Amino acid sequence: MALLPNGDLVMVALLQDHSDEKLHEWAGLWRSSDGGRTWSDRIRVEREPGQDLVGREHWLTSIDGGTPDGVLFSTCHLLANDTHNPDDYMHSYVNRSTDGGKTWAPYLKSATGSIIHGQLGSMMAG
């Protein structure tokens, strides 16, 4: 869960579908604009139209970023047996949103299991 600069709360959770021995894990998001007393219906989060924000165990971090919506980061990982993973090993990702989680930048994938600091610094800078 993250508190945005405009006072909204944003919560994300893992959802999954199974097919044979593969799985498809994606992020669902809920919003509250009244301090958590009420929540929106689940929103299926997309990186691009028709493309889910995939991965598991998303952790949200919000920074001010100088806008009412701030900058929102989601860190997660994609299992080797996920339908969206073309490789045979787990990857870590960083996703970035500048509009409170409504849209997301293409993810940053770790090459060797750890985020490359120069790339992460570039994402934070804009």
Run of helices and strands: EEEEEEEEEEH
- Helical content band: under 10%
Sum up the overall morphology in one term: globular
| Average predicted local confidence, pLDDT | 80
Please count the helical segments: 1
Query: What are the segments in which pLDDT stays under 50 over at least 5 consecutive residues?
Result: 113-121
Topology (elements, then pairings):
Elements: E1 2-3, E2 9-19, E3 22-32, E4 43-44, E5 46-48, E6 51-52, E7 56-63, E8 71-78, E9 91-97, E10 105-109, H1 117-125
Antiparallel strand pairs: 1-2, 2-3, 3-4, 5-6, 7-8, 8-9, 9-10
Describe the structure.
With 126 residues, this protein is mostly beta strands. The protein has one domain. The chain is 7% helix and 47% strand. It is built from one helix and ten strands, in the order ββββββββββα. The protein has a four-stranded antiparallel sheet with strand order 1-2-3-4, with no helix packed on it. Strands 7-8-9-10 form a four-stranded antiparallel sheet, with helices on one face. A hairpin with a 2-residue loop joins strand 2 and strand 3. The radius of gyration is 15 Å and the shape is globular. The two termini are 22 Å apart. About 7% of the residues have low confidence.
